[in-house]
UniProtKB/TrEMBL annotation:
It comes from Hydrogenophaga bisanensis. The lineage of its organism: Bacteria, Pseudomonadati, Pseudomonadota, Betaproteobacteria, Burkholderiales. This is Chorismatase FkbO/Hyg5-like N-terminal domain-containing protein. Coiled coil: none annotated. Pfam families: FkbO_Hyg5-like_N. Residues 54-180 form the Chorismatase FkbO/Hyg5-like N-terminal domain. SUPFAM superfamilies: YjgF-like (SSF55298).
Amino acid sequence: MGFLTFNVGGDLSDIDTSCILGGFGLGLTPANVPWPMQWLGVPVHGETTQGWQEGWVADRAVASGVRDGIRWRRHEGLLFGLIELAEASPRVIGGLEALTNDAYHRLFRLLDEQGLPHLWRVWNYMADIHGDAETLERYRQFNRGRARAFEQAARSVTGQVPAACALGVARGPLSIAFLAGAVPVQPVENPRQISAWRYPAQYGPQSPTFSRAVLARPPGQEWLMISGTASIVGHETVHRGDVLAQTRETLANIEAVVAQANRLAQAGPFTLPELSYRAYVRQLEDMPEVSRLLAHALGGASVVCVQADVCREDLLVEVEAMGWHPLA
Ligand code: 3EB
């Protein structure tokens, strides 16, 4: 397989669009592109009128298709897909569980058909993530719908699970983007945190289904993809109400995940400054100082900062990261 690169925040308009596997657009003004792009209509820190775009670029033209409402592109043993499902209007209380379950069923069916069984990384976004709190909070409904689909597809909900993030946005459909491949990923956990798939019941009737990070090895490359990481130690939120202390704790968690990944990495150790980061900040007014702290602490790494709701109400910030090395 040819090399894959991740073009961060740059101008994708110079690139042959047939080689773009998929990607993300962040900002208030949507762009219209021919590849599957997960668009988040969220405020970006320091946004220009263009917003922010990033994506995976292959070294040759990719295959593409639409199946069951999933837009996908495939480069040999690697597939990027995007599924967006609108919710009922008006919204039905409890409806997000069934919708999430449906989305993941379609996703797994596509992977079966494509002969690419291994889910690597999933980006989940939903409106009103804390809604329905009087019955079952929507993020908890999401966790039930997701885990049930894994189980129904005879997939593990512990141990061998993808890296992920799950965030709330102001409006829009349930939006799930994913990378899947021909080979399994190697999950990485964080010794400072209990595995999310073992969270106790106080966080909901179903623990979330994700690894703290994964090492993925398409031919000739080793990718480190770090899940959404927050100010959680053990299973508890720490530094309630203090966004800068939460950001520092998050950095300590990312450092611990990278150290753990480096024990398994085959292409040499990853360092913090070489990774690219996306930071989600709950309160718009916190973005400048979180952005400044991250830029300083990460030694000039690429960091894009957006406003979004982290899945626990007491979490003010969440950070994800990725990077890759050539593998001999
Ligand atoms: C946490 O550590 C913060 O439900 O897929 C981070 C990454 C979080 C992924 C998910 C949730 C998810 O629990 C929340």
